[in-house]
Amino acid sequence: MPNRFPQLASLIICAGLLSACALETGSEALRAPGISIASLEVDGPLEVRAYTSLPDVPEFGAATVYYPPAIEGRMGAIAIAPGFTERQRHINWWGPRLASHGYAVLVFDTNEPRDNPGVRADALIAAVRLLKAEDSRVGSPLRGHIDSNKLAIMGHSMGGGGTLIAANAHSDEIKAAIPFTPWQPEGVFDHISVPTLVIAGAADRIAPVALHAWPHYQTIPRTTPRVYLEVAGGNHFIANSGQPDNAMLGRYAIAWLKLYLDGDERYRDFTYGDAQQVDARDLSRYISNP
Ligand code: 9J3
Predict the structure, then answer these.
(1) 196-201 and 226-231: which strand pairing?
(2) What whole-number distance in Å separates Cα of residue 32 and Cα of residue 46?
(3) pTM to 2 decimal places
(4) What does the pLDDT read at residue 12?
(5) Structural element, H or E, at residue 23
(6) CATH of the domain at 149
(7) Phi, then psi, of 124 in degrees rounded to 5
(8) Domain ranges, residue 271
(9) Which ligand 1 atom sits nearest the alpha carbon of residue 85?
(10) Phi and psi angles of residue 270, each rounded to the nearest 5 degrees, phi first
């Protein structure tokens, strides 16, 4: 894996300069060469393959798994749900984007295009369980490659509502959640204990933030690491494509997963430090705990 070497080098440097590195935590000091705002806004260094031949499960329809074959050990895995009437193709830019940065990513079609968020929540949990099972399935390209302690869920709109519902009921099965422009009227998510990044658009007319993303965020316990990211002028579909204007959201998601799935502190700055503050003009709100 191309990234290993700088990481090792930075560990050695930090071991030698322990106090200096401790003082610099959260700043650029811990950021390895090659990790930058620009590098997180494009596909990563890893080649990506995809496959669709998967065990049938009742909770969702067709699905595609994107993954980086170069990773020799186990990696984190993410399941992603589309929104109302959407299919994989509406959100599947996330597959190669996240996989090229080191994750296995399953994007599915719901059984019915109009399935409600609760059904999408069940599908998301079934999908992370399926990803986990790929680790031991004979014939799976991911056999021996899934880290069952590094599972996350994401989704758009009703799929974002589903992400929140699933995280609320199954925080014990996942490590992070990223709903984008989530839709769930009167959603209360006060049992979420996994780090949750809520991505919202200030000008979303389908899931207005005043009724959806913002109250959703506020119901997540303060004891849970949580961020509310609201794109100024952003509509309902800001996270449905990565290029060109919305690449920033890919960067936030990758940084969130690197930090909370992998515990990689080199990415903290992109959520909580200087590398976040560069976006001040583009965000109408950016709020983290408490
Ligand atoms: O998943 C979505 O885009 C929710 C949009 C919506 O307005 O649903 C209303 C039935």
Answers:
(1) parallel
(2) 17
(3) 0.90
(4) 36
(5) helix 18-24
(6) 3.40.50.1820
(7) -65, -40
(8) 35-289
(9) 1
(10) -75, -15
